[in-house]
Specification:
- It comes from Christiangramia forsetii.
- Residues 20-47 form a coiled coil.
- Keywords: Coiled coil.
- This is STAS domain-containing protein.
- This protein is of the alpha/beta class and 92 residues long.
- Helix content is 30%, strand content 29%.
- The protein has helices at 20-31, 49-64, and strands spanning 2-3, 8-15, 36-47, 68-72.
- A hairpin with a 4-residue loop joins strand 1 (2-3) and strand 2 (8-15).
- Helix 1 (20-31) runs parallel beside helix 2 (49-64).
- The longest helix is centred in the middle third of the chain and has 16 residues, at 49-64.
Length: 92
């Protein structure tokens, strides 16, 4: 994870069951100090269903606290093969 600007966080590498709890904890600590975050997913190499669920629930929790989360994803290559056949709400 890399903090690019004040409210932009770049996730890199993997977001899957091996590290999803750690990443979520780090994001929550950052959000405690911010009103909004932009999370760039473009450098992720792997994103599995646990990572997708965490991103969805993280945005939902932030919304309940009147905070804003936006996700940047310019290419769907990172999620190809992970969500086909699953009807997921939009996280972008």
């Amino acid at each position: 994870m890399e903090i690019e600007k004040d409210n932009v966080i770049k996730l890199m590498g993997r977001l899957d069951s091996t590290n999803v709890s750690e990443i979520e904890e780090q994001l929550e600590e950052i959000l405690d100090e911010k009103e909004s975050l932009v999370i760039d997913l473009n450098e992720l190499e792997t994103l599995d269903i646990s990572g997708i669920f965490m991103l969805f629930s993280f945005k939902h929790r932030a919304h309940k606290e009147y905070k804003t989360i936006e996700y940047l994803l310019n290419s769907s290559k990172v999620i190809t093969g992970n969500i086909f056949g699953i009807n997921m709400p939009s996280i972008v």
